[in-house]
Design a protein that fits this description.
This protein has 167 residues and is mainly alpha-helical. The chain is built from 8 helices and 2 strands; from the N terminus they run H-H-H-H-H-E-E-H-H-H. Helix content is 67%, strand content 5%. It is elongated.
């Protein structure tokens, strides 16, 4: 028996619309741009082969311009790809497989550079204990992320491999 979330379907036949909108709202709350978050979650819920831009607009109830901007953003951050097929007139968009953990792993050098810059901010405020302490703690956090993210991704890959063996 399917849960209410997986059985949910809108009038146009799109599945998991509320769950996708909830996930997009969560991403938006932590700083991800709203429309790209909505498009990304719609593409996660898309049927095999993804959606065209007009199908995304229909599913989300937004203009072509809104979809275009969101798609451009998501392609720039390498989360989705445009797929053209000779037997289809319109290009389709789909999530790039394994994109999330690749993005997380690739951010380790960014976290390290950010930590170094934040330490410089703290050093420039050496007379202000509160500013120095905030900077040191934030730099320490980003160094922790730089160190742990590759380990977490390795762990995820092992779990995923184990799951595939049991499927």
């Amino acid at each position: 028996m399917e849960s209410d979330m997986t059985a949910e379907q809108d009038d146009a036949g799109h599945v998991a619309v509320d769950a996708a909108e909830d996930a997009a709202a969560i991403l938006t709350a932590v700083g991800f741009p709203r429309m790209p978050a909505r498009v990304m979650m719609a593409l996660i819920a898309a049927p095999a082969g993804g959606y065209t831009a007009s199908e995304l607009g229909e599913r989300l109830g937004v203009s072509a311009a809104a979809v275009s901007g969101a798609v451009r953003y998501l392609q720039t951050v390498m989360v989705i790809r445009r797929v053209s097929r000779p037997d289809h007139r319109l290009a389709r968009y789909e999530i790039i497989p394994d994109t999330w953990y690749g993005l997380m792993t690739n951010n380790a050098p960014t976290y390290e550079r950010l930590a170094t810059s934040i330490e410089s901010i703290g050093a420039a405020h050496s007379a202000d204990h509160a500013a120095t302490e905030r900077a040191e703690e934030m730099a320490e956090f980003f160094r922790f992320m730089a160190r742990r993210m590759p380990e977490l991704v390795d762990e995820w890959e092992m779990l995923r491999a184990e799951r595939r063996l049991t499927d």
